[in-house]
Amino acid sequence: FPSHDMALELGLIKVGDHGHYDTFRRRILFPIINTTGQVVAFGSRATYEGQMPKYLNSQESLIFNKRQVLYGLPLARAKIREHSAVFIVEGYMDAIMMHQAGFDNTVAVMGIAFTEEHLKELGPNIKKYYLLFDQDQAGEVAAKRSLPLLLKNKILPLRIDLLDCKDP
What we know:
The chain has 5 helices and 9 strands. The strands form 3 sheets. It has a 4-stranded parallel beta sheet. It has a 3-stranded antiparallel beta sheet with strand order 3-4-5, with no helix packed on it. A two-stranded antiparallel ribbon has the order 1-2. The N and C termini lie far apart (35 Å). By secondary structure, it is α/β, with parallel strands linked by helices.
């Protein structure tokens, strides 16, 4: 377990008016695991109406950089290789739901566009990249920011239109 100072540095606990408190109190926690199988951060979702923010990730730290980590990659890697295809969604809840629906070659970016580091993490042998970002303004912006990187790397991504649905 991390020391008190380490927990503060990683953002697991914070200092408030009444002392220290758990950053992720009253939230559902999702471990964020790197490619070597180590938990490097947490994502969380609010559990009651009006709790803000709705989604909260660990802060970036010495061991966690969201530009480098794709949520669910350790679980999805074998299926990505098998199908030579990857579904890229916006967040961990979307990735979890895609896996539950049988799309086991799904990974998620966490609040940012797809990056060069993400591309390197996935490896060179993927033939199809499916962008499945939310059907809202943030999803549109993330998709548009991802396009130049993919095109620069000679990847023509396929965009899936969710029609009237907001999330996968």
